[in-house]
Design the sequence.
């Protein structure tokens, strides 16, 4: 699809990040973390041995900031990408770091937007996924299927400007992290995630899984009705319970205390309502690092399904593309084992003039192809708005 009326182009001097701007950004409600430059890169490898590589890195490289930042891919066998920055700035609260030096121009020449897979192909995949669930209800309880939109613009995309626009939603964690270059072209994962995978702070451990979603409405009464309907939805609560169950099962043997004192609550972003459960615990062993916890939990049923191995096999069969770092995790860790890792959803991979946006939906008995297609369309909206687009403009409304 080609849409000639809207295009967000970067100013020429902002091709990647200007020298005085951070290359890594993580902006949450209580802290803004900015990393500048790369002192060294953690050797690549799968998530299974990531904790050991991180531990050796800090032992062998005591100089510089006591932190690693970066991204974990969706596939457990794929290589992680963590960096030791030259400089780090950590600011309490939401720091207004992201306003670019110039502004993004909106031009009248063309922007190309292509669905990959097509909406029809995604709906067919959901139907096949539902059939798999019905065929093996005892061995497959949930799968998560995603789709993407490819956007191509006239000039290199302004990562700082995208971050600034995404950061307007205070309910999400805004992030931008470098990815391994492709054919010499810098790549970034940029997004606005609402979901905490895991945080370790001393002996304390936290997680805030989300599953079950509904589109927000522009009028207050309709918006409240959408939230209440989601909270009462048997299907969505069942889908959400699978995620909480798996996370509690993983963390329970590692903790002396583990609870979800608030139960299931609503989490709101500007575009979506979600069911969420805040999980809090106390670790038995202070030596258990945030990286070890992330490696045990990832990917949760919120982005994969349940059981993990069976759901992942169905995803690889039905989706038709490599998720890369979408539905992985972004965050940081330090030499003490503390760290904070967020699920990398509501995001896009940026590569020069090209962006690939992702959105997924949980499939359980009771799901429908039409409903899951609509849910993914709604989940695209935050990233589309950062590009100056609406779902209606590209046929996703």
Sequence:
């Amino acid at each position: 699809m080609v849409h000639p009326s809207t295009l967000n182009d970067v100013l020429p001097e902002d091709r990647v990040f200007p020298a005085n701007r951070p290359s890594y950004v993580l902006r949450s409600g209580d802290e803004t973390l900015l990393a500048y430059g790369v002192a060294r890169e953690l050797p690549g490898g799968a998530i299974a041995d990531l904790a050991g590589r991180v531990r050796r890195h800090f032992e062998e490289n005591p100089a510089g900031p006591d932190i690693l930042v970066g991204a974990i891919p969706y596939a457990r066998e794929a290589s992680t990408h963590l960096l030791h920055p030259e400089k780090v700035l950590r600011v309490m609260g939401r720091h207004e770091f992201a306003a670019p030096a110039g502004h993004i121009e909106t031009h009248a020449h063309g922007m190309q937007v292509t669905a990959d897979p097509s909406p029809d192909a995604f709906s067919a995949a959901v139907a096949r996924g539902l059939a798999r669930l019905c065929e093996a209800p005892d061995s497959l309880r949930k799968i998560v299927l995603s789709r993407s939109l490819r956007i191509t613009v006239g000039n290199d995309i302004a990562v700082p400007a995208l971050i600034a626009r995404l950061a307007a939603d205070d309910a999400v964690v805004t992030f931008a992290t470098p990815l391994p270059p492709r054919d010499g072209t810098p790549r970034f994962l940029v997004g606005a995630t609402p979901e905490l995978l895991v945080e370790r702070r001393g002996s304390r451990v936290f997680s805030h899984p989300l599953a079950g979603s509904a589109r927000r409405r522009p009028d207050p009464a309709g918006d409240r009705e959408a939230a209440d309907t989601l909270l009462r939805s048997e299907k969505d609560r069942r889908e959400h319970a699978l995620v909480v169950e798996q996370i509690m099962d993983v963390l329970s043997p590692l903790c002396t205390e583990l609870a979800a004192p608030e139960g299931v609550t609503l989490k709101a972003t500007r575009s979506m309502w979600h069911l969420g459960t805040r999980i809090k615990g106390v670790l038995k062993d202070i030596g258990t690092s945030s990286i070890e916890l992330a490696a045990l939990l990832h990917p949760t049923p919120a982005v994969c399904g349940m059981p993990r191995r069976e759901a992942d096999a169905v995803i690889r069969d039905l989706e038709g593309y490599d998720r890369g770092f979408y539905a992985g995790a972004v965050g940081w860790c330090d030499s003490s084992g503390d760290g904070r890792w967020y699920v990398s959803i509501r995001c896009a991979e940026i590569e020069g003039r090209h962006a690939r946006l992702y959105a997924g939906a949980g499939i359980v008995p009771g799901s429908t192809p039409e409903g899951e297609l609509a849910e993914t369309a709604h989940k695209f909206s935050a990233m589309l708005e950062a590009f100056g687009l609406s779902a209606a403009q590209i046929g996703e409304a």
In short: The first helix runs from residue 50 to 60.
